[in-house]
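W.,

You were right to be curious about this one. When I first looked at the sequence I had no strong expectations either way, so I just let the prediction run and decided to look at it fresh. Below is the sequence, 401 residues in total, followed by the output.
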Amino acid sequence: MKSSLILFVLILSCCSSSSAAEAREEWNATFGGPYADGAWCLQETADGGYILAGNSASRGEGSDLLLIRTDRAGKYIWSRNWGGSAEDVGYFVQETKDGGFIVTGSTKSYSMGEELLWLLKTDYSGNLSWDKTFGGFVSSSGDGGWSVDETDDGCYIITGYTQSQGSGRKDLWLLKTDGLGNEVWDKTFGGSEDDVGMSVLQSSDGGYIAAGRTASFIRGGDDIWLLKTDSLGEEQWNRTFGGNQDDTGFQVVELSDGYAMVGRTESGSDRKKIALIKVKPDGRKLWERSYSGSSASSLQSTADGGYIIAGRIDSIETGRDALIIKTDSEGREEWSMTLGGRGDDIGTFAIQNRDGSYTMTGITDSYGAGREDVWLVKIAAAEPQIMENETELRHIEFAKS
């Protein structure tokens, strides 16, 4: 393995803008070293802490897949890095039924050409149980995983993209493995252009629902794509949503009466907007809402039947800021928050915690020790109050391994 990574953790109590009085920032933590680090996924763990997946370049050799474990207050417990001298990244992490973690992403370090889809399983302490790579049947191809879900039978379903097989430049890839990461089956979906799966989960009927984007079955540019299969990966239906510009779906959730997905749309406006779409169980659209913002990357349903969305908003004057939007069950905005500083900051994933509060992860250039750092923000569902700035800076050095 490579030399130790220097980690800085910054806890800030500060103010941020909110469109209503229902939410306030509770704490703000950053993790990283001297180079670019970021998180793409966040999950609350069974003990109330957090697990984050992303990438880190702070070891000085390429970019490594990164896992970070914190307690419920955002305090560092452990981190793990895997990778080689090239670009490696983790896009999605989920706590598994055995208390460990399953991670998917991509690796260039262990391929003969472009990236491979990478699947890793760890125990509760982040020790690697096994890892598998998929794809790379053509040296110039690229394959990657964007989302993984543990299935009821103890297996894993992954979606992403493949250029190794299928009919187009990139095809949406649906891959099922057993509990040890051995392939059970794989399916590709798409046409002659780029088609990518960004989110997947097992549906209540035992099949799978995937969201992403397609350029093969389009009205113009990319379209938001929703695809439903049975338990063997055989397509049951697919739907596209969009206009004459680029539109992308990033995450899907299952509801009692259908599905909802979030994405970005450039259609019907002179600027990018965030799109939230609800569909019936057969994929037919019930409603669509749009919100001010440049992109959204995560969607979670909340205990009150509404939704929490994480993304970003771009401005010529202030650069990029993280954006969180809370809606009711019909997609009507209840409140929103922008978070960030003088640098570029984005929100990549937000969840509602079991206590009703919210937590967001992302990438910040405004706070922390390096060029970009992993960002973790806790948002309390309470009346906002102005607090004095209190900064606690802790310096942690990983042991060499």
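Here's what jumped out at me. The two ends are 6 Å apart (CA to CA). And, maybe more interesting for your project: The first strand starts at residue 6 and ends at 13.

Coffee later to discuss?

I.
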